[in-house]
Amino acid sequence: MKRSFILVLAMVAGLAGLAIGLAASRSESPRAIKVLRPAAHSASSASASPGASSALLAASDAKTAERGDEAHVVRFAAHPQPMPAFLVNDLDGKPVSSAAWKGKVVFINFWATWCPPCRAEIPILIDLENRYKDRLQIVGVSVDDGDPADVKQFAKEAGINYPIVMADRAIVTEYGGVPALPTLFVVNPDGKVVQKHEGLFSNELYEAEVRLLLGLPVDATIETFEDTGQIFLKNAVLATDLPNVDFTGLNPEQKKFALKRMNSETCDCGCTLTLAQCRINDTSCPVSKKLAAQVVKDIASNAATPSPFPPAAAPGTAAAPATAQPN
């Protein structure tokens, strides 16, 4: 009896050690990119805070079921911007050029072999590529730091039927950085990026997007939103609000001044982004949140926001000369 009890305890301890080891190895994932599991909603809603797409958090399996309704409302950027062009070789050495995709819907999928949600998404993309192969182009951009041969072997075993290219600094930078995996950019047949998904989304949503962009029948409607950083972080300068930044107490001019500062000052968290971009890119960042709050506090403490220009003279009068300051 005692021997069997000791054996059970040993097995439990061994399993616990294995779990700790796996957790440790996961925390050392290449590039420290967040792995995003299924989320409860699309963060690109017009009613959502600007940049909310970057705020997707890991969600429970129960919430995943709620996402079946997403396919009925598809959200696209109202004024989409051109897809960043690139010309690189795939894992077989064949050139992959964005110039060849005109007239097709394009999915640019940033992923990694070590990312569980990315692996779960692969069958969805394979199915879509099979059924819309003449009008849909999927490109996988691997951010793996290992040997490309290992990525090629993984792709072969997974049955991936679309080209895979290895990410480099230029591609990642052109697409505004990839802080989370998987990240998928949706490009319309005119070559413009209409949506960005961070995390694992449903096959129904992806297919609804494809069919709407191709003008095919589908039980879904389109809502539009202005890209103020949800797709491309450079558009953070257009945002009139930022995630978890309270502008209460500022008048309109002071708020504009605060936003201007947040779009010009760099966050100290090491992201190399502006405060505004960091708030959009990672709403959980405590550094940018604290610094942004300090900017608001500094401006609110002044009776009025100082203007960089002297006040204009009243019509018919001369401007008062500047008063000399004592030494």
Structure overview:
By secondary structure, the protein is α/β, with parallel strands linked by helices. Helix content is 33%, strand content 16%. The chain is built from 9 helices and 12 strands. Strand 10 and strand 11 form a beta hairpin. The C terminus is likely disordered.
Quickly list its features.
disordered C terminus; single chain; 6-stranded mixed beta sheet; 9 helices; two-stranded parallel ribbon; 12 strands; alpha/beta; 33% helix; 327 residues
Radius of gyration: 25 Å
Structure class: alpha/beta
Order of helices and strands: HEHEEEEEHEHEHEEEHEHHH
Helical content (DSSP H or I, runs of 4+): 25-40%
The general outline is globular
**Oligomer class:** single chain
Unreliable segments (pLDDT under 50, ≥5 consecutive)?
Answer: 5-32, 38-68, 308-327
Number of helices: 9
Strand content is 15-25%
Tell how many strands the DSSP assignment holds.
12
Order of strands across the widest beta sheet?
A: 3-11-10-6-7-8
- Mean pLDDT, nearest integer? 78
Distance between the termini: 93 Å
* Biggest sheet statistics: 6 strands, mixed
Summarize the structure.
The protein is built from nine helices and twelve strands. The chain is an alpha/beta fold and 327 residues long. A six-stranded mixed sheet has the order 3-11-10-6-7-8. Strands 1-9 form a two-stranded parallel ribbon.
Helices, strands, pairings?
Blueprint: H1 2-27, E1 34-35, H2 61-64, E2 73-77, E3 81-82, E4 87-89, E5 95-97, E6 105-111, H3 116-131, E7 136-142, H4 148-158, E8 164-166, H5 169-174, E9 180-181, E10 183-187, E11 192-198, H6 203-214, E12 221-225, H7 252-262, H8 275-281, H9 286-300
Parallel strand pairs: 1-9, 2-12, 6-7, 7-8
Antiparallel strand pairs: 3-11, 4-5, 6-10, 10-11
Helix pairs in contact: 7-9, 8-9
